[in-house]
Design brief:
An eight-stranded antiparallel beta barrel has the order 1-4-5-7-8-9-10-11. The protein is globular. A hairpin with a 3-residue loop joins β2 and β3. It has 200 residues and is mainly beta. It has a single domain, classed as Beta Barrel (Lipocalin), CATH 2.40.128.110. It has one helix and eleven strands, in the order ββββββαβββββ.
Length: 200
């Protein structure tokens, strides 16, 4: 992630969808909690954060995300999740910078058209847990750990039926994934955030 241009734009606003008040959410039924959950890309966000010349943070996001979850509240530790990200959808509120990020200098999206995460272990309770898994970025796969929590759940017919949401954060070193450009100007450490809402 050479990030030569990534470092100049301000934090961008994330679009939000507002709906009229709805009935109180009901707990998920066991029958609605088995495998088969899919990431709702409209209500999910993948963010990254990097420090610029030791002074401030610049944020970006990926608009193309998908994935699946095996989740049963009665057996939370057996949960599994996969997340796939299209790096060509990188969004930093600056088109020239985004074009540069797609180039071989950074994500090299033609050579590496997908970023993926596949969980291998869940430790803790749904309220607070550690999510371990394999992150594949820029052609390199390494095991990483997210600090995560379940944000909430609902089963409201008017809102599309059963839903569950999770929030997870971690920090990686981009040099570990072969992204060593401009380490003098952009921190080696990159913060990653997954804010995911899933539906059946």
């Amino acid at each position: 992630m050479k990030l030569k241009l990534l470092l100049l734009a301000p934090v961008f606003a994330l679009p939000l969808a507002f709906r009229s008040p709805t009935p109180a959410a009901a707990p998920l039924r066991a029958s609605a909690s088995a495998a088969g959950w899919k990431i709702d890309p409209v209500h999910s966000t993948v963010l990254f954060k990097i420090k610029h010349v030791g002074t401030s943070y610049t944020l970006g996001r990926f608009n193309g995300i998908s994935g699946a979850l095996e989740y049963d509240p009665a057996s939370f530790g057996s949960s599994k999740i996969t997340v796939e990200i299209d790096p060509s959808t990188v969004d930093t509120n600056c088109k020239p910078r985004e074009d540069h990020l797609r180039s071989p200098d950074f994500f090299s999206v033609k050579e590496f058209p997908k970023i993926s995460f596949a969980s291998t272990k869940v430790e803790g309770s749904a309220d607070k847990f550690t999510l371990t898994g394999d992150l594949t970025l820029h052609g390199v796969t390494k095991s990483i750990h997210f600090s995560a929590e379940k944000v909430g759940e609902s089963d409201i017919k008017e809102m599309g039926g059963p839903r569950v949401g999770f929030f997870a954060q971690t920090t990686i070193k981009r040099s570990d994934f072969g992204m060593k450009n401009m380490l003098e100007g952009a921190s080696d450490e990159v913060g990653l955030t997954l804010a995911l809402e899933l539906t059946h």
